[in-house]
Amino acid sequence: MAVTMHVKSDSEVTSIDASSPPRSPRRPMYYVQSPSQHDVEKMSYGSSPFASPHHYHCSPIHHSRESSTSRFSASLKNPAAWKQLQRRHHDGDEDDGGGSDDDDDEGDGEGDGGQVMRFYVVCFVLSFVALFTIFSLILLAASSPYKPKIFVKSMVFQNFDIQAGMDQTGVPTDMLTLNSTVRIFYRNPATFFGVHVTSTPLELHYYQLKLATGYMKKFYQSRKSQRMVMTLVLGHQVPLYGGIPLLSGAISHLESVSVPLNLTFVMRSRAYILGRLVKPKFYRSIICGVVLQGNRLGKHLNLTNSCIYND
Question: What's the angle, vertex CA 219, arms to CA 218 and CA 225, rounded to 5?
Answer without folding.
Answer: 145
